Amino acid sequence: xxxxxxxxxxxxxxxxxxxxxxxxxxxxxxxxxxxxxxxxxxxxxxxxxxxxxxxxxxxxxxxxxxxxxxxxxxxxxxxxxxxxxxxxxxxxxxxxxxxxxxxxxxxxxxxxxxxxxxxxxxxxxxxxxxxxxxxxxxxxxxxxxxxxxxxxxxxxxxxxxxxxxxxxxxxxxxxxxxxxxxxxxxxxxxxxxxxxxxxxxxxxxxxxxxxxxxxxxxxxxxxxxxxxxxxxxxxxxxxxxxxxxxxxxxxxxxxxxxxxxxxxxxxxxxxxxxxxxxxxxxxxxxxxxxxxxxxxxxxxxxxxxxxxxxxxxxxxxxxxxxxxx
Length: 325
What we know:
alpha/beta; seven-stranded parallel β-sheet; 2 domains; Rossmann fold; 325 residues; five-stranded parallel β-sheet; single chain; 29% helix
C-alpha cells in the first residue's frame, strides 16, 4: 500500500467549527499542494457519495463512520487529535488505509497546564482567591516546586514537554515508558510495573497516558495508596485512566493534598459529582490541550506525514493498531 499522490483531500469538522477553520485549511494546504482539490463537510450528509479521496483530515467525529462509508475509496485518514481511542468502536475500514494522528500538538499547552496546576497548589492560589473575595488579608507560608519530585505517567510528547518545563523549575523528574530508554530532562525512566517505589517519594503525579485496555482504570485506589502522603495529582490523560471515586477517597484520607482534573470517566462531569465542591479539587472542562495554534500545528503534522508517505517512507505519527492509540 502506498500513497501515490495528494490530488483530492476531504476535510471533515463539526459544522459549528468548520467555518472558522476553512480559511486556514485552504491557505496551508494550498501552499503545500496547490494542485489539490479540497472538499469540506460539516456533516455526513454533506459528503459526496461514491467519491474517492487520497486523504481525509478529521477529528474523531460521532458521524465519521457514516461519512467514510459513503466514499468509494480513501487511502489515508489523518486525525486532528492525538487520542484516537474512539475509532475502534466505529464501523469503517481501518485495515486498508494509512491511519495517522496529530501527535505533538498538545505538548506546549498541556505541559503548561500541568505546571500551572502544580503552582496552583504550591502557591495556594485557591486559598488566596477565596480570601480576596472577602477582602481578607491573611498571610501563610508557601511551598516551592524547586527540589520537588514529579512523576510523569507516560513520556510521550506531552510528558517530555512537561519534563523540560519541570527542569526549568529545578524539579526532580521521573517518568514511565513501555520501552526503557534515556529521555532528555528525565532523571529516571522506569517501566510501569516498577513505579511503586517512585510513587512513595513523589510530590506530584501527572497522568499523561492514552486510554487503552491496559490503562483503563489504572490509577485506582491501590495505585494512589502507594503515593507519598500529601501528594498532588494532575490528570491530563484521557477520561477513564483515573478512577474518580479513588481520587475522592485519597483526598479524604490525606493521601492526596490536592487534585487538578481535566478529564473524567463521564463528560461533561455530572452536576451532582462531589468533585465539583471539594475544596482541594480544581475541575477544568477538558481544556488542557486547547490553544489558538491547535489547527495550525495539526496541519503541520499532516504535512510531515504526507511528505513521508509520498516518498515511500513510513508515516511520522502512525496510529498504533496493536496498542490501540
